[in-house]
Design goal:
Chain lengths: 969, 91
């Protein structure tokens, strides 16, 4: 049963090229340019899918990208929309959501069961017992579902997003949008025109090809500053006209200076019994099929009418060869003017003030029951008459495609004429024209587009001719109540979700009588088409049920994206920053096992492991010989200017203005509330020149904080971020001098370069800054060099240290070494409430400064510290589980703190740890720590530092040479 | 994504900016009461309306002060820190 019509003027198909494809296992042939739906219809296939919940047969409905009951599965993709997706050579297609194929879908039993499945059934039934919920969820999801993803498909679906800019974006390339775009572009603006269809023209294409379209398109194509994108959905509006354009190739993030929304309307169905039967469709769908694809939507049609477009449809389809059995007008046809005469002249029977009460047919439409309407618009079953037909074309109203307008903050109001929501107030830079603006009539729409363009040009401060808005016409295009209840039900409001009139009535009766509640409870408008053909009727139904008007009832929020978008488009390209230090290549070549710290990759330890042994060996190398760690990730800031000393004093808790040139001092920073936020080492190069390090994680934030405080404090000082320009390494251990000495002219003796000194000198021929610090508790130097030469310096030191058994050490060994010294790590041993007093660092707070950040808070907190950082120790051979970080300290049955750091100290052959505990425990002898398995162990509290409490080893000149060597041996 | 106007750099997308919290002139820490100080440190007026806020243009490190209507998420004006300090001092 071939339904292909003779060639139509301006059709989108190429009849010279045929393409074979299969659907549900049967072979068919399409013309190039056919959509899957048009090709199947041309081959006489009318049942194209099964519905979501009841597995009812469904056919073409909108042919406008919203036929969500015609979703298909191919060998490489799923949820393909048959109504807009063009056939490709050799496609193998099947309907989604069937059990055993489209024809014999076993799921169709659900339709019989539907009376037992009222709205809210699943919420009410399956929440108890809780244990069975996963079972039911699995069952329900299998029955009610969409396409299936095949994990074997290649992972090449990520599409990088592009970015673009323009003066004016016009959404919709129909008569109004095309006119607007051409007008704006001819005035010199850079214009983008986006349309979701395969070709521009919009509703121009749904009627006889005409000269106005071709003239406008000709002008459009001649303009170099007009970019036309087809197959492109403007999927949302974000602040300042930032619009995601969904193209087949991926997202375009477009920044426009002004937006003209000319998205037109979605035609709306009538609500009556069996209004979902294949053969029942929107009139606009029939016109699209005829004019774009040369396919007859049916052989004999009845037209349900509530506006003049219905009459045009009747005439056009009859001209195309479809027999029009009847035109059923919900209203008085007398108002249709010449069109009524034309229809009558064409011998089409017109039934006035009548409605389709029910569609008939077992799985396919074969007749409609038409009833006259009473005085209040109800169907009178006593007047029922049956009219045979295989197509029912509904032309009863429209809803504006206004998602972008809503998202931009437009105020919309319901207008009785034309019978839809129209913009009442638009935000600046947003304009609307055409049918979305409530303007019908072809010439009026084009005039409206030109006027919108003129307004947009004026908004942009450009010259351009101003046009007068044509105003909304006098015809009511949308019927206020195209709803005809039927005692036998199957009166559908939302085809996506198989929602019936009775479901909405029941939801409202159960108290879900606000439009947002009704949506969430019944799921109306929550299917793949997002209610584009359901929401308006749902609003009408709820308004009538609650006795409110349409404006009072309102609409649901249309959030971006208002149309489905492939996940691969959203995911975009995988771009994750990864920072590597200047010595990364060396680490890699020497077996480093890396760990991420923030965006950085740092050596955790140097292989081949096992990890624990490697870390212990690294710790012992520092304690007994010499070893080196890459500390380039530290934040590094130069502070320069006349107010530099004052700035440092105000920024940190210690007094840094008294640091002498060529010396360093520990630097601790608290915020306004007195909470520790960062620490580092501050060196002074001159009266007005400091150099300070920050923690790795604080590098960016603290630098930015400094920049802000300079402005807030109005100080004459500058900060320079050296974090990425300088690389740093810390060489430490009793044998450090032996390694470093041959590589520098610097005098490393105690007198010339004492503990906490800072020096500038060449190391391995590279200008370097050296700081004698004791973070790991041994003689050590932190060496900062330009990043470009850092690897050379590192390698030279490693080579020089070879004779002394030097080895690199990683983050884990560094953490263990500092733990043995009880040097805290900000953010690990402290938290968002820890003041220096909690962390045993009152020595680091100098109140004898006129002002510093957090001073006033610390004055208040001084004697009120609520916590205390304590050290505890367990023997190295402690039997049973050892505490881990974050294990709880228990006191009197309550939580009284937590372990913040713990590790095995090879230097001491003991487990040492820090715990932040309640101040009630500040003098405790032991801590009760709950370890894995809820076992409580008692850990003795010991004084810190655990290792070398006098700090003799980092300044070995104070220890007799022989003794130091003895320890290191 | 919003556009934000930095008084020095010009108009740039919001992704280049970092929000720095409310702009709150600090009371004299030596003269104010504990209660006043506490209010300054911990209290933030979250009521929708016109707020003065710290914003930073991250790539250039330029901090400035913005007047923003938090109800409408609209930037009303932006001013340099010096300008904001002057206005705070002289009203």
């Amino acid at each position: 049963m071939a339904r292909r019509l003779p060639p139509q003027p301006g059709e989108w198909i190429d009849r010279e090229h045929t393409m074979p494809f299969t659907f549900e296992g049967c072979k068919y042939t399409a013309f190039a340019g056919d959509t899957i739906t048009s090709a199947l219809l041309a081959n006489g296939v009318r049942v194209l899918g099964r519905s979501f919940k009841y597995h009812r047969p469904r056919g073409v409905f909108s042919a406008a990208n919203h036929d969500t009951n015609v979703l298909l599965q191919s060998e490489t993709d799923f949820n393909i929309r048959g109504d807009v997706t063009t056939v490709e050579h050799g496609m193998k297609l099947a309907a989604v959501n069937t059990a055993g194929g489209l024809e014999k879908d076993r799921g169709r039993i659900m339709d019989r069961l539907s009376p037992m499945l009222p709205v809210g059934f699943y919420y009410k039934t399956f929440h108890r017992p809780r244990a069975l919920l996963p079972f039911w969820e699995n069952r329900i999801r299998r029955m009610a579902g969409l396409g299936r993803v095949d994990a074997a498909w290649p992972d090449d679906r990520r599409a990088p997003a592009r970015h673009a800019f323009c003066d004016v974006l016009v959404v919709g390339a129909g008569p109004s949008g095309l006119s607007a775009a051409v007008t704006a572009a001819e005035a010199g603006a850079s214009v983008w025109l986006a349309d979701e269809n395969a070709r521009p023209g919009g509703s121009f294409n749904d009627q006889e090809a005409n000269l106005q379209r071709d003239e406008l398109l000709g002008r459009a194509h001649a303009l170099e500053n007009l970019t036309i994108l087809t197959d492109t959905v403007a999927a949302g509006w974000y602040a300042d006209h930032y619009i995601p354009l969904v193209t087949p190739e991926g997202l375009i993030r477009l920044r426009a200076r002004a937006v003209i929304v000319a998205g037109g309307v979605y035609e709306q169905p009538a609500v009556f019994r069996n209004n979902d039967l294949p053969g029942v469709m929107l009139a606009s769908a029939a016109r699209r099929l005829v004019h774009r694809y040369g396919v007859a939507p049916c052989e004999s049609a009845v037209i349900l009418a509530a506006n003049s477009d219905a009459y045009r449809t009747a005439l056009e389809l009859q001209a195309a060869g479809v027999a029009i059995r009847a035109l059923v007008d919900l209203e008085d046809p007398g108002t249709r003017g010449d069109l009524l005469a034309d229809v009558q002249a064409a011998a089409i029977p017109v039934y006035e003030r009548s409605a389709v009460y029910s569609a008939e047919g077992n799985g396919l439409l074969n007749a409609v029951t038409v009833c006259e309407l009473d005085g209040v618009g109800r169907a009178r079953p006593d007047t029922a008459r049956r009219i045979d037909c295989d197509g029912l074309l509904m032309s009863v109203g429209y809803a504006p495609a206004a998602a972008l307008l809503y998202q931009s903050g437009a105020r919309m109001t319901f207008a009785g004429t034309p019978g839809q929501f129209v913009p009442e107030a638009l935000p600046s830079g947003v304009f609307a024209c055409g049918r979305v603006n409530g303007v019908f009539g072809l010439q009026a729409r084009m005039d409206d587009g030109m006027a919108a363009a003129g307004e947009a040009l004026a908004y942009l401060g450009r010259e351009g001719r101003q046009h007068t808005r044509p105003g909304r016409g006098s015809e009511r295009m949308s019927h206020p109540w195209p709803v005809f209840p039927h005692p036998k039900g199957k009166v559908f409001v939302d085809l996506d979700e198989d929602l019936q009139l009775k479901d909405l009535e029941r939801a409202a009766a159960e108290g879900f009588d606000n439009i947002e509640l009704l949506k969430r409870y019944s799921t109306v408008g929550m299917g793949p088409s997002q209610g584009k053909h359901a929401n308006m009727n749902a609003v009408r139904i709820l308004a009538r049920l609650t006795g409110r008007d349409i404006d009072e009832t309102g609409t649901t929020t249309a959030r971006p994206f208002h149309h489905p978008v492939p996940m691969g488009h959203l995911a975009g390209r995988r771009l994750r920053p990864e920072r590597r230090t200047a010595m990364h290549g060396w680490h890699k070549a020497h077996g480093a096992v890396f760990m991420p710290t923030g965006h950085w990759l740092r050596p955790k330890y140097y292989g081949p492991g096992p990890e624990d042994e490697a870390i212990r060996a690294e710790v012992l190398a520092v304690r007994k010989g010499v070893a080196m760690v890459d500390v380039s990730t530290l934040g590094k800031v130069e502070v320069i200017g006349p107010d530099a000393a004052r700035f440092m004093d105000q920024l940190y808790t210690l007094k840094l203005s008294t640091v002498k040139t060529g010396r360093t001092r520990y630097a601790l920073m608290v915020d306004e509330a007195g909470v520790i936020i960062d620490d580092g080492v501050c060196a002074r190069w001159a009266e007005d020149h400091f150099y300070v390090t920050t923690t790795t994680t604080g590098a960016e934030i603290i630098f930015r904080h400094m920049q802000r405080l300079i402005g807030e404090w109005q100080l004459n000082v500058d900060v320079i971020n050296r974090t990425h320009q300088m690389a740093s390494m810390n060489i430490a251990g009793p044998l450090t001098r032996e390694v470093l000495e041959p590589l520098t002219d610097l005098d490393l003796s105690q007198e010339a370069f004492p503990y906490l000194g800072a020096r500038q000198a060449e190391v391995a021929g590279v200008p370097a800054w050296l700081f004698r610090v004791g973070f790991v508790g041994e003689l050590g130097y932190e060496i900062h060099v330009p990043a470009a030469q850092a690897r050379q310096v590192w390698a030279s030191l490693m080579a020089a240290g070879d004779a002394y058994g030097i080895r690199p050490f990683g983050v884990e060994a560094q953490r263990q070494l500092r733990l043995e010294k009880a040097h805290l790590i900000v953010g690990q041993d402290t938290d968002g409430t820890s003041s220096p007093f909690d962390a045993n660092m009152s020595w680091a707070v100098k109140f004898d400064k006129p002002f510093f950040q957090g001073k006033r808070s610390l004055e208040i907190l001084k004697d009120r510290a609520s916590n205390r950082l304590l050290g505890f120790r367990l023997p190295g051979n402690h039997p049973g589980p050892v505490p881990k970080e974050c294990h709880l300290v228990i006191h009197d049955g309550d939580i009284a703190g937590r372990v913040t750091s713990i590790g095995y100290s090879p230097s001491l052959d003991a487990w040492v740890g820090l715990a932040m505990v309640d101040r009630a425990l500040k003098d405790a002898d032991t801590l009760s720590i709950r370890v894995a398995g809820a076992e409580i162990i008692d850990a003795p509290v010991v004084a810190t530092p655990f290792y070398d409490p006098e700090g003799l080893r980092q300044k070995p000149e104070t220890v007799p040479e022989s003794q130091a060597r003895e320890v290191s041996a | 994504m919003k556009l934000i106007h930095c008084p020095k750099v010009g108009t740039r997308p919001a992704s280049e900016f970092v929000y720095g919290g409310l702009w709150r002139p600090m009371p004299d820490p030596d003269a104010c009461s504990d209660t006043q100080w506490c209010h300054y440190v911990f209290h933030r007026d979250g009521a929708p309306g016109v707020q003065r806020e710290w914003w930073c243009h991250a790539p250039t490190g330029m901090w400035f002060v913005a007047e923003r209507d938090t109800m409408k998420d609209e930037f009303l004006r932006t001013l340099t820190v010096a300008e904001a300090m002057r206005e705070a001092a002289y009203g």
